[in-house]
Amino acid sequence: AGSKLREVFDKISNLLSGKPVQTEGQTVSVTQHPQGLEFVCYKLAEKFVKQGEGEVSFHHDSAFPIAVVVSGIWELHPRVGDIFLAHLHRKCPYAVPFYPARKEGTSMEEYQRMLGYEVHDSKVEEQDHFLKRMSGMIRLYAAIIQLRWPYGNKQGAHPHGLSYGWRWLAQMLNLEPLADVTAMLLLDFLEVCGSALVKQYGIQFWKTMFFIQKSYIPRIEAVTSSGQMGCLSRLKSFVQKCLQEKEIPLPKGVLTPSFWRT
Asked: Which of 93, 131, 168, 240 has the fewest CB atoms within 10 Å around its CB?
């Protein structure tokens, strides 16, 4: 509910502002320790990224309520935003976007970690689980860049707005595609952020969609094996439908004005 989200937001913002906050029957404040504020910023940013790779990866709709809180906190407390980006880029290099290359002397295990895989006792996580986590983090990022906390003063610009999404998309399309990963990331990003980007960039955005259809999808196909076609097929049909209908559907779970009255 909107009222519940406001409660959560106010509590986090108060804590970061040095005000005493009640939690689990005790009062805490970042002023109780010289490194208190830095610690809270770090752990909070880490937690936001974990919600992307956990909650959002399983429930796509949850990207929007989490993202609107992240965006608002980022605006009021820029340090949290900087650390959030650092955590996000470490866990999901594709949010940069960046495909790490394996350097000489790097072990396979270390390289897989650089690519974002979880490795425990030399055992690498399943591909499906890896893709799900990356998808959740990209969806959260795509929601953050288009949302603002509705109760802020809105005097300044969004701390990390749609221009960053536009740049992400352009840089993504300049990279050589990877099987499995690229198709999924593009689809997630366009599903969540496409309607906001088309409002902002109009004809330029449609030119980009046309480029994806005519030039970039064939390049993804060239590196995709028959067993990895699922996401690529969904990307193809999404882009084709949007170009045919000349519109990008609003993402599922987007927060409407009525949400804030709940």
From this structure: 240
Considering the domain boundaries, does residue 80 fall inside one?
A: no
Residues 6+ apart with CB under 8 A from 244: none
| Number of separate domains in the chain | 1
Q: Quick one: which H or E segment has residue 22?
A: strand 21-23
CA distance 14 to 29: 9
Q: Over the stretch 3-15, which tens digit does the pLDDT of each residue have?
A: 999 999 999 999 9
Structural domain of residue 185, as residue ranges? 161-254
pLDDT tens digits, one per residue of 59-94? 999 999 999 999 999 999 999 999 999 999 999 999
The stretches of 92-180 forming alpha helices (DSSP H) are 108-114, 127-144, 162-173
pTM: 0.94
- Is residue 149 within 8 A of residue 75, CB to CB? The reply is yes
Helix (H) / strand (E) element for 207: namely: helix 203-211
